[in-house]
């Protein structure tokens, strides 16, 4: 009996060592979601599609600040002029660029470039920051998508201002050929009617929308980018 006990206790360190090795191996294999998603930028060659790496990184940083219901990330890059396709819809889980298309900014934000931004009523300006997509409805522009602004002082009045995603006739290549730029909205991220339904169906119901511009006030004060 004593001999059996001695053998048992002699084997215990090897048992714990084996268990410890297994746990250590698992921890090394664990990668946080942000690290997994960061490789998507290179995988999808988003740089060749006009989206800068710092803008994508900002979007990922903010995405991880709030629990979104879906892994669809939409980026409106207002550092680009409106005659470029500056709306990117990315499926992070499937590693796919679902859409890249035109999107308008507010009429009082600028003409070709959006330079001024506001969270106030009747400003007719775009609002920067992170949004959560909500429900769809049929409005004067047809199928539209409600948006909830998540950043106090920057876009938290969006729902009350009726800032929604909708289709518009002034968001198309024909309009660009005539004027050199897109038409402008009353602050909404208006998109091409030809893809409106598909995009809204893809991003509705709790996904993340990030409206970006290199605005110093926003970049310094946004709690989502800290």
From TrEMBL:
Source species: Larkinella rosea
Pfam families, alphabetized: YkuD_2
The organism's taxonomic lineage, starting at the top: Bacteria, Pseudomonadati, Bacteroidota, Cytophagia, Cytophagales
Signal peptide range: 1-19
Key words, A-Z: Signal
InterPro entries assigned: YkuD_2
Domain of life: Bacteria
UniProt KW Cell membrane keyword: no
Entry protein name: Murein L,D-transpeptidase catalytic domain family protein
């Amino acid at each position: 009996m004593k001999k059996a006990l001695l053998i048992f206790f002699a084997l215990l360190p090897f048992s714990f060592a084996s268990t410890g090795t297994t746990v250590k191996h698992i921890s090394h294999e664990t990668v946080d979601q942000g690290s997994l998603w960061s490789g998507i930028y290179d995988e999808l060659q988003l740089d060749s599609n006009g989206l800068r790496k710092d803008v994508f990184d900002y979007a990922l940083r903010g995405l991880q600040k709030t629990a979104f219901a879906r892994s669809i990330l939409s980026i409106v890059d207002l550092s680009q002029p409106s005659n470029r396709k500056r709306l990117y819809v990315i499926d992070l889980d499937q590693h796919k660029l679902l859409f890249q298309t035109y999107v308008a900014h507010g009429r009082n934000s600028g003409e070709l470039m959006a330079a001024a931004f506001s969270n106030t009523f009747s400003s007719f300006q775009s609002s920067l920051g992170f949004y959560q997509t909500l429900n769809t409805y049929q409005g004067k522009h047809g199928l539209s998508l409600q948006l909830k602004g998540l950043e106090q002082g920057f876009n938290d009045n969006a729902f009350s201002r009726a800032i929604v995603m909708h289709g518009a006739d002034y968001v198309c290549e024909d309009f660009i050929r005539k004027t050199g730029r897109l038409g402008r909205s009353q602050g909404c991220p208006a998109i091409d009617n030809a893809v409106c339904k598909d995009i809204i169906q893809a991003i509705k119901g709790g996904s993340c929308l990030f409206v970006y511009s290199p605005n110093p006030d926003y970049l310094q004060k946004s709690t989502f980018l800290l």
